[in-house]
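Student: Send me a single protein entry containing the residue sequence and its fold in token form, directly below this note:

Tutor:
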Amino acid sequence: QVQLVESGGGLVQAGGSLRLSCVYFGSIFSINTMGWYRQAPGKQRELVASITSGGSTTYADSVKGRFTISRDNAKKMVYLQMNGLTPEDTAVYYCKSSNPLVHRDYWGQGTQVTVSS
């Protein structure tokens, strides 16, 4: 069974930074595509950034140049460095793992990010 646990959320002023972390409990972490998603109140969950097993990254247009996703396969961790935060970044941020062999996705419980103006 896979479990994902996010941390690092909190309250920050506009222009500030946060670093989210997600630890993966389970086997075969390195082959997974890992992603960060977010869901703001009244809105659908959206992709923020993803990183493949080979290190290729994808970003939502709204966060390009401000956010950076990275992974540490040895520690089974994925990170999201968020700089230049704006109130529009306020949301619950979720970590997701996608296993390409068994075609299964797992989600963390989410961590709240609140950006004050």
The two ends are 40 Å apart (CA to CA). The mean pLDDT is 96. The longest strand covers residues 91-99. The CA atoms of residues 56 and 115 lie 28 Å apart.
